[in-house]
TrEMBL record:
A GO cellular-component term linked to this record: cytosol
Native source species: Flavonifractor plautii (Fusobacterium plautii)
This protein's record includes keyword DNA-binding: yes
Pfam families cross-referenced by the UniProt entry: Bac_DNA_binding
The name this protein goes by in its record: Integration host factor subunit alpha
MF annotations from Gene Ontology: DNA binding; structural constituent of chromatin
An individual GO BP term: chromosome condensation
Cited SMART domains: BHL
Family, per entry: Belongs to the bacterial histone-like protein family.
Keywords, comma-separated and alphabetical: DNA condensation, DNA-binding
């Protein structure tokens, strides 16, 4: 599903215009981004948790030259699905 398809589905389900549904989706994504950037978790009961994971510095290997390289520590966004979402996926 693309962003456009999601906006259309949201508009239909909530009796909104596509413009309003698009603004709502953009606002949601912006607020999740702001929260994660400040180190907060975003917990959506019944759906899941968005959070930032810390990745430690580690040694890697350049596949072309086989030379060892140092991969710096980083922060990456992560999503952990909630139990109801996991149950739906089991079928």
């Amino acid at each position: 599903m693309t962003k456009t398809e999601l906006i259309s589905a949201m508009a239909a389900e909530c009796s909104l215009s596509k413009t309003d549904a698009g603004k709502a989706l953009d606002a949601f994504m912006h607020q999740v981004t702001v929260a994660l950037a400040s180190g907060e978790k975003v917990i959506l009961a019944g759906f899941g948790v968005f959070e930032v994971k810390e990745r430690a510095e580690r040694t890697g290997r350049n596949p072309q030259t086989k030379e060892e390289i140092l991969i710096p520590a980083s922060r990456t966004p992560s999503f952990k699905p909630g139990k109801p979402l996991k149950e739906v996926m089991k079928g």
